[in-house]
Hints:
3 helices; alpha+beta; GMP Synthetase, Chain A, domain 3; 119 residues; 3-stranded mixed β-sheet
Amino acid sequence: MRVSITLERLATRIHRELAHIVNEVLGDNKSFGYINIVEVKLTKDLSYATIYYTLLTEDKELIDLAQNTLSKKVVEIRTDLAKKIKDIRKIPDLIFKYDEAIAYGNRIEDIIRSFHKEK
Length: 119
C-alpha cells in the first residue's frame, strides 16, 4: 500500500513545525529536558496525527512527566500548529506517544557490550 505524496509532505511539514513548537510551548521549566520529535504519522482522512517523540533520558518518571505535560498542553500546541500551517482546512488531533525504539536499541547495545567484556 502506497501512502500519497501529499500525505507524506504534510506529515513532514507537521514534523518540522512541531519540533519547534513543542519545546517553545513547554519552555525552559521542563525538568525532563529537550523533546525530540522522531516521526509523525497521519491517518488517511487527516483527522489524527500520531507524534512519536524521545527524550535524552530513560527514567520512567521523567518519561511519564513528559507525556502528562504534552497531554495537558496538546490544545495549545495544536493551536500554534494551526497558526503555522494555514493551507489545510482542519488541523489533525494530536496524539503524543513516547518512542521506545531508541531505548530498546540502547539496551541491546549494552547487552552486546557486556557480552564482549566477558570474553
